[in-house]
Amino acid sequence: MYQVLYRKWRPRKFDDVVGQPQVTETLKNALKSDRINHAYLFTGSRGTGKTTCAKILSKAVNCLNLTDGDPCGECENCRGLDDGSILDVVEMDAASNRGINDIRDVIDEAQILPARAKYRVYIIDEVHMLTMEAFNALLKTLEEPPEHVIFILATTEVHKLPSTILSRCQRFDFHRIAPEAIVGRLSYVAEQEGATITDDAARLIAAVADGAMRDALSLMDRCLGVTTSITTDVVRDAAGLAKKDYLFELANACINKNTAKALELISDLHRESKDMARLCDELIGHFRSLLMIKTTRHPRDMIIMSDEEFEDAQLQCDYLTLAEIIYIMDELQQAYMRMGKGNSNKTELEMALVKLSSPELDGTNEALLARISALEKAVKSGIVFKETVKTQDLIEEEEETTATISEEITKPVEKESPAPKKEAEKRPEPKQSKPLPPAVNLEEIYNNAKPFRQWPEVVENIKKYSKAIGSAFSNTNAYESGQYLLIDADSEIAFNLLKQSSQRENIRRAILEITGKTYKLGPYKKPEKKEEKNDPLQALISDLKENGIEVEEN
Questions:
Q1: How far apart are CA 302 and CA 294, in angstroms?
Q2: Which residue has the higher pLDDT, 354 or 515?
Q3: From residue 307, how far is each of 11, 199, 304, 313, 460 by CA, in Å?
């Protein structure tokens, strides 16, 4: 019969436990020095190894050939505990056996000597589920149990335990397992199972597992049911996650205040049967990553994403203030909390994104603070809004013109009583200025502009270099005019990207790969329609002449 991975690869000794050295090393040292306690309390989040360590400890205290604090796995007691032939280790689920009568049965059994092992061990999982009467019944036995009995209590909610229970146990806190440790374990298990897993896929599984090794192995088990070559796409499909592309595009829609784009993306994801609550949670996580980039010195160590995604996240972070990020996260969090309480999850997420992409609809203090913060950032950075953008300033000046060298003419300084000069000083000859390049005729460039049909293909190619940049240009048009490629965009992000030399190079390279041509980039200015001023008098004269009436014009 097939055995799931988290059971098949459950550690058999303390050295195999991943990410809990503060627990395993202490227990090994206690076993080597024969300092065995009568009651232990293992606490921590799910899937971090509490039950696993309890099973290893129960085997170690009964092992006949203890090896450096670890059970040997070969002696009679170890084999008997593995195959279930020795019944002196009892595992009890307090969630289903939580009453006082269940605890009384345990207390009565604890008086009986072990049949074959050295100790009778009781592992009580989810001990916080016991009733108060059951806790009170357990107190005396837990404080002074028979010499042959050891209690190991495990819980995920230690705050629910009475202080009288806590004071009678030796406590061990299990931490969330570090992503690097989970990635290493997943790679090892995949190799042993004859499968392959990419580093990005392993990191994504670690991010979804949130520090729980059991959850990580369970997710990889689902992926192996699909294919033995696990990639990020396989993990996303198995976990029902949205691709990072959608998260970046949704974030761009909020930054660009593009409500239509945000709703289109939600509709597409809903059509693909993506869970809206999970998508909302992922969006919160995405903006949490932006928050880490904005506020910490070394965010790369705290964020689980590929190098390319991290670069795109940094680019998005440049266009948001800290107040805006907090406001977005708070709005999404409120939508997440409302999900499942009435309206559909899709509707709640759509309402949140409409508010985020149309800030004028939200009059809360947080929304106003975010808008004021954005305006302050725009003023400090010298950003000019689109209505007042000077087109000439956005054309690549470093390619169109060279710096003009002004003539340096040295004039004598006049004083009221100049002192006589001993020798005539030679004045330096003025430097020759370089000839100015021909002026750029912007009106002619715009008048000759024709639609650039290959622009959608270029935008897709840009995403190879940066998904965030590609998303910024996703709803734009381009026009070709000689050696110029003029881009028509509604958002300020696109124009700001054109100003950055590094980003222009990426755009220019993507265009070259599609067209084989190198263009100079600039914004497109729609031609203004000139309103013809009609003279009312001339119009009257024309009408009279058309009706056969002679008019004398003076």
A1: 12
A2: 354
A3: 33, 12, 9, 10, 20
Alpha-carbon distance values, 335 to 70, 315, 365, 374, 468 (Å) = 49, 26, 18, 23, 25
**347 pairs with which residues across the strands?**
none
Tokens of 365: 């203090």
Which of residues 441 and 493 earns the better pLDDT score? 493
CA 300 to chain centre: 11
545 CB neighbour count, 10 Å cutoff: 11
CB 336, CB 280: distance < 8 Å:
yes
CB 382 within 8 A of CB 393: no
The mean of the pLDDT values for the chain is 79
Residue 252 near residue 467, CB atoms below 8 Å: no
pLDDT digit string (tens) for 95-148? 888 888 888 988 888 888 888 888 999 999 999 999 999 998 888 888 888 889
| Residues with Cβ within 8 Å of residue 227, at least 6 apart in sequence | 234
Strands 120-125, 89-93: pairing kind: parallel
Q: Give this prediction's pTM.
A: 0.59
Provide CB contacts within 8 A for 553, sequence distance 6+.
Answer: 541
Q: What is the rounded distance in angstroms from the CA atom of residue 162 to the CA atom of residue 149?
A: 22
The predicted structure's pLDDT at residue 24: 92
At 156 the three-state DSSP class reads coil
Can you name the residues that pair with 10 across neighbouring β-strands? none
Q: What is the pLDDT of residues 313-371, one digit of tens each?
A: 888 888 888 888 988 999 999 999 988 876 788 999 999 999 888 766 655 665 566 66
3-state secondary structure of 488: strand
Instruction: Please report, as a single letter, which amino acid is at residue 99.
Output: G
Q: Would you say how long the chain is, in residues?
A: 554
Distance, in Å, from the CA atom of 23 to the CA atom of 51, rounded to the nearest integer, reads: 13
